[in-house]
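Narrative progress, year one. The postdoctoral researcher (J.K.) led the effort to move from monomer predictions toward full complexes, under supervision of the PI. The following entry was the first complex the group processed end to end, covering 490 residues in total.
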Amino acid sequence: MRTKIYIKRFNKLDRLFHFFLIVAFLIQAATGFGRLFITTVWGKELSSFFGGYENSALIHHWVGALMIAGFLLHIIYLLTRMKLRNLGKSIFGPDSLVPNLHDVLHLWQRFLWFFGFGPSPRFDRWTYWEKFDYWAVFWGLPLLAITGIMLIYPIWTSRFLPGWSLNVAALLHRAEAILAVSYIFIVHFFIGHLRPSSFPMNQAMFSGNVTMEEAIKEKPAWIERLETGKNLEIVTAKAPALWFKIVYFGFGYGALVFGVYLLINGIIYSPHIRLH
Amino acid sequence: MATAVFVSLLFLPEIVFSQEEVASAIRRYKQYETSTGYYEEYEVLPQRQRPMVGVPGVSRGVFPYSPGAAVVRVRTRLADSHRGIKFYERRRCEDCHISETLDIHTVRANLTCRQCHGGEPVASINHYYSPMNPIRRHAYVCSKCHEGSSASYASYIVHEPAPGSSKAREVFPLLYYSYWFMLLLFAGTLVFFIPHSILVGLRELFWKKGKDEK
């Protein structure tokens, strides 16, 4: 058995943010769906797990407040990661998640590769779908936060906006939540768990590391850049401990099963919501 | 002069947004319950938004009073809105107003029609003495449950139209366009990413077998 070389992909803070987001998102999805589906048998069961219709809302509000705090902390974290001396490169460079023209090119090459008309694009640190994942949360969270605050404090909101903006806020909150839940539980889970190259689970976001082989295969431009910049030694990392592996596999699969449970029941019971 | 203005500002009451004469919603409601049904003595017009029934296609101001108020129906100004309807006594509200039972107040809070619209005769929404008239709806109807509601707050559309419908396009364009924007975003995201995921999965199956690459 030969030893594998691991390289660092996510630092502790990145992983902590992601872990927090998973837990918060699942609680929000469950408490929110419990309320959305309250007219159905399943919705009643789901919200009774959280203490009923009113209590689900209470939990939803507090976890929402924590998510807003997490988002603000994340903004501060982003600002600390920007390098003022080299602002252009730190925003538009390959280590940044800001989309650029390479992503459009990669998308095109990726589609050619799907049908066998060329090699897979030489991805750098972040692929276009990873960037999409990030920005989807980045715009979805403020939208849910603002509409959510409007709905928690309707009378206060109606001092600044006409009352009928609450109709729109309720619609946007629900629609964005359904979009987020569908995207995460279908596409994100497929990419993270089911696609052949990451099956049974893409461990990078939990252990923080990827193996060298995997990185060369998936993100050749990143490794090349690290090699030419003589940074490869800096980012080599240790293999995750076995107990830690067991913990995050359990957690990841727990999240997967719970997400799919919400998604399937949501689809089954959606005709019985009894709202417009 | 400036000092005088400043001192008078200190003693003037704070601006109240709904411009209510009586601040407490609870006291106001008790008065309503015990009153004779004539409300003029308590009334002050809401300050921020003048409730006006618009003419379809003509909006006043940047934000019209409420998108739903733009509809002028035949029976919106009667003292008894159901006057002359045959077999009215034998009918239930939802026999005719079926789409009015599909909103959050009815479905989630289990309110009955009477709890807001009152007993017989049900006055038209815009009848001058109706508690549902937008000039006093916030104080006489909404504040039964939502303490502190203002006229602006009362412009929330309880019986909102189905957001994707052509009716919504007429009476509540913002809701209509938000709905279609979110729906297209939803459909677009999934229509792109689900086939994308399937293609990734299929391609990588062959990739693993080494049919690809140098």
